[in-house]
Design goal:
262 residues, mainly alpha, two-stranded antiparallel ribbon, 11 helices, globular
Length: 262
């Protein structure tokens, strides 16, 4: 015994948290390879637009914003008006308003500080995997969440360094099809939710409106328009649910379900 605590219990708790962390890291493994060309590409673009290696790496570390970094850097290099840069980045990132609303309900049991950290690391992958974890009735603990987030974050920062340092030696990713890795991964994530009610009409509506917006309005607005198209379809065809179950996930506690009173 040590300070009134059983060492075996402490050891079991630590082992459980380690398992949660590695489960999150394992879930993020495939996307690390898919994102790598884009992380490296940002480093190349940043240096081409006047940043040095340190500034390129710091930008990736401070923002961790994926496509927004590429859009912003490209526009900075073209001396576009600041308001246009902000508007373009808003269009790319509008989906994160939806992500934060969806993920927020799953991490209510996090402490305020943990929630702040969690929202900083919120990405497309983080949102999708959290939804999948909840759908499988598995606990979403802070340790699991960070196990998914930290490897993705570190790889993104390292890739920016590689691109900024060795960018001149790297050929065009499109020439060998690397640019298709990320779309394929996200297609797999979307297909993973196909058992949900009304999945097909919502995805179809989002796809059609996104493609139409891409040709009629242009990038990056097709991302926002596609999301809105899917939301509108979901609202139109949604039916009120009675006896709905809400998953409550607490760190180191079993999953509980509570019947909502309609």
């Amino acid at each position: 015994m040590m300070d009134g605590c059983n060492p075996k219990i402490l050891s079991g708790t630590q082992t459980g948290k380690l398992a949660q962390f590695w489960d999150g890291a394992r879930r993020g493994g495939p996307v690390m390879a898919a994102v790598a060309p884009f992380g490296i590409l940002f480093g190349v673009v940043a240096v081409d637009n006047g940043l040095n290696v340190s500034e390129s790496v710091w930008m990736s570390a401070a923002l961790f914003a994926g496509a927004s970094q590429l859009v912003g850097m490209e526009l900075f290099g073209k001396h576009v008006a600041p308001w246009m840069i902000l508007l373009s980045i808003f269009a790319v990132n509008f989906r994160h308003v939806l992500y934060s609303a969806g993920t927020g309900r799953l991490i209510k049991h996090f402490t305020p500080l943990q929630q702040i950290v969690a929202f900083f690391f919120l990405t497309d992958v983080q949102y999708a995997e959290s939804e999948k974890q909840a759908e499988q009735k598995k606990p979403i603990t802070f340790v699991w969440y960070m196990g998914l987030a930290i490897p993705l974050y570190l790889s993104w920062v390292i890739e920016a360094y590689i691109g900024a340092t060795f960018g001149g030696m790297i050929g065009d990713p499109k020439a060998i099809g690397l640019d298709m890795l990320l779309p394929i991964y996200f297609l797999g994530l979307v297909m993973g939710f196909r058992s949900r009610t009304n999945w097909f009409p919502i995805v179809a509506a989002s796809s059609v409106t996104s493609v139409a917006a891409y040709f009629w309005i242009g990038s990056p607005w097709h991302v926002t328009v596609g999301a809105i198209g899917g939301i509108v379809m979901a609202v139109v065809i949604a039916k009120p649910l009675s006896g709905r179950e809400t998953v409550i996930t607490l760190d180191d506690e079993p999953v509980k379900t509570v019947k909502d009173v309609q």
